[in-house]
Amino acid sequence: MTPPSISLIPSSSTTTVSPKPLKPPPVVQPQLPSLETKLFSRRNAVVWLSLIAPLTYPASALSFGISGPKEWLKDQKKKTAKYLLAPIDASRNILGSAYLLLTRTESDFGEKELEEVQSLLRSAARDCVPQERNSFVQFQSNTGVEVCTFRLVVKNASSLLADKDPVKLAAETKLIDLIRSFASLSDMANEIDVQVASNRQKVANALMDTVTCLDKLEQGVKECLEV
């Protein structure tokens, strides 16, 4: 006898589910820091200037008889002008805060306010007054590292100009005037008698003279950049 055949009937309840394709993780765009005044502290200002440094070359190195490379660099430096000028603007704002403190009524001005004014002046000077530098910054200066932010600004702005270019020489003269003004202002603030309102007013007047020197340096830098 022939055994009965057995046929397998596929179960309708069994289904094959294709795996879902994996989705790639979302792309997160990096957020750039906002360019606020606090970004241009003395240390951050030097960082910004070091980032701009690759755009600085001696004018003699570009004397190929071809204007292309030099003109391109000039255009790039113009585009970075707002970053180059930012430390100057930040120092001007700091001096404005110090002026408001100095012109308070006599009853509102004491030793605490004087210390705050002196601290603001040191910050605004951007390590350009030797006696106001801390030990680390002084060490850098002694080892040949430039620490004066305003000097770095002028150096970057005028790097495409010849050494004897009158625009460059004018900017360097304004830099010297500014550093002298900051040094004089610092000395005066350290010797102030907080009880005498007329003395504080003298410091406030000297502070405004320093602001004027800052404005002149800013104009000199703009002339170097042709903006």
Describe this structure in words.
The protein is mainly alpha-helical and 227 residues long. It has a domain at 69-134 and 146-225: A middle domain of Talin 1 (Up-down Bundle), CATH 1.20.1420. It has helices spanning 42-52, 68-79, 81-102, 111-124, 135-142, 149-157, 166-190, 197-225. Helix 7 runs antiparallel to helix 8 (197-225). The chain starts with 41 loop residues before the first helix and ends with a helix.
Fold-level CATH name of the domain at 69-134 and 146-225: A middle domain of Talin 1
- Largest sheet features: none
Quaternary form: single chain
The count of β-strands is: 0
Shape, principal axes of CA atoms: elongated
Beta-strand share of residues: under 5%
Order of helices and strands: HHHHHHHH
Can you count the helices?
A: 8
Radius of gyration: 31 Å
- Main CATH class of the domain at 69-134 and 146-225: Mainly Alpha
Sequence-ordered SSE layout with sheet pairings:
Layout: H1 42-52, H2 68-79, H3 81-102, H4 111-124, H5 135-142, H6 149-157, H7 166-190, H8 197-225
